[in-house]
Amino acid sequence: MKEAPVVTALTRISAPVEDVWRVLVAFDQYAQWHPVLSLDAKPDQVVVGAEIPGRIAGDDTAEQDVTMRLVDVQAPRRLVWEGGSLDAILGRHSFALTPQPDGTTELTDSEEFFGAAAAELVPTLGQFREEYSRYGAALQARVEGLSG
Fold first, then answer.
1. DSSP H helical segments within the chain, as ranges?
2. Residue 136: strand, helix, or coil
3. Cβ(70)–Cβ(47) under 8 Å?
4. pTM surpassing 0.90?
5. pLDDT tens digits for range 2-42
6. Secondary structure of residue 38 in the 3-state scheme
7. CA dist., res. 7 & res. 2, Å (int)
8. Which helix (DSSP H) or strand (DSSP E) does residue 123 occupy?
9. Which residues of the chain have pLDDT under 50?
10. Are 24 and 39 in contact (CB under 8 A)?
11. 3-state helix/strand/coil string of 78-114
């Protein structure tokens, strides 16, 4: 069995884990800071099994409705959602927040891809990594703007 393709981006955020977590789970506010994702759910819906509807609209992609299902919630350290289908591509997106000794937070934003067409993503993983770094920078700007 082949390993699933994975994209990972690291971002250092000058704020404590709890501040980053609050922004990360404020799903109804993603449209205010995330470059391509807007979600339609409230932070009180952050429970395993919750379905989070939303839309992806990028610079060069048509708007697409998506639904993410929360599969792991360990406040304020880890959030994981899945979207898609094993018939095509299923993405398991995880956010790990690690407190640093200097009071900052290291965000590890990664996504693992499964399904019949997952291998087709391998040539684009570098581009995905750049996009995820951009998402991390947007989260960083949002968190630091709110706590600064």
1. 17-24, 125-147
2. helix
3. yes
4. yes
5. 689 999 999 999 999 999 999 999 999 999 999 999 998 87
6. strand
7. 16
8. none
9. none
10. no
11. EEEEEEECCCCCEEEEEEEEEECCCCCEEEEEEEEEE
